[in-house]
Amino acid sequence: MANNYDQIPVVTFSIDVDYFNQLFETARGLAHNGMPEALEEANKEYRRAVALSKAFIKNAGAREQEAAQGLERTQVGHSKSGYKPTGTLQGSIEIKISDDGNSVSIMPMATVADQKKALEAIAGSGSKKPITSEDGVTYYGAYVEFGTDHNKEFGTYRMAPEPFMKPTGEKIATRLDNEFEHIMRLAVLGSD
Q1: Close Cβ partners of 122 (under 8 Å, ≥ 6 residues apart)
Q2: What is the DSSP string of 83-129?
Q3: CA 125 → CA 89, 95, 156, distances in Å?
Q4: What is d(CA 163, CA 91) in angstroms, rounded to the nearest whole number?
Q5: Please, what sign has the CA dihedral across residues 180, 53, 73, 161?
Q6: Which region among 3-7, 121-125, 161-165, 171-175 has the lowest average model confidence (pLDDT)?
Q7: Higher model confidence: residue 52 or residue 104?
Q8: Are 140 and 162 in contact (CB under 8 A)?
Q9: pLDDT above 90 coverage of the chain, percent
Q10: In the beta sheet, which residues pair with residue 13?
């Protein structure tokens, strides 16, 4: 099987502080018309917004990671999908923050090789099938999230989807919208 990195279920949250361009345009106009402090105040608000936004993004990533881990731990693998939970998938959910700090992606990075090793350790037996180099670059979070029709790696040819990233991402995103508005109000007004 080829590398399926592009199929890993990913939840991404991002912020956009470009709306501050309008604030700067207004402040420049006010400064030009005799209120030089307007531009200084706009810069302060922008710096507060950026600092609060970066903290907000980190928090959003942590909340999604925790929610996805909880859903995977409590509900995934408890049906007839063929997926056997080992804790490997749950423990592999990583947070990756963009270089500019304005977005965060949360994704499960466990490979088929990781899952095979965990299943073997649980069974207390040696491998019946050798782990191949392909196993190490095949991410099984995609199989769990989206299902598959031919999943020889897990001993089944059909695996029903058991989404754990998308549902938690949607739930967290709903909450984040209102919270981000509140954070920006704090940045602009300096208080509630």
Answers
A1: 86
A2: ----SHHHHTEEEEE-TTSSEEEEEE--BHHHHHHHHHHHHT---SS
A3: 21, 33, 19
A4: 16
A5: positive
A6: 121-125
A7: 104
A8: no
A9: 38
A10: 104
Distances (CA, A) of 9 to 43, 100, 108, 166: 38, 22, 7, 8
Residue 180 CB coordination number (10 Å): 17
Which regions of the chain does DSSP assign to beta strands (E)? 11-14, 93-97, 103-108
- Under the banding of pLDDT at 50, 70 and 90, the label for residue 27 is confident
Q: Which amino acid is at 59?
A: N
Which amino acid appears at position 1 of this protein? M
Confidence check: pLDDT of 163 > 80: yes
- Interval 98-133: pLDDT, tens: 999 999 999 999 988 888 888 888 887 655 555 555
Identity of residue 50: V
CA 107 vs CA 5, 6, 176, 191: distances in Å: 10, 11, 18, 34
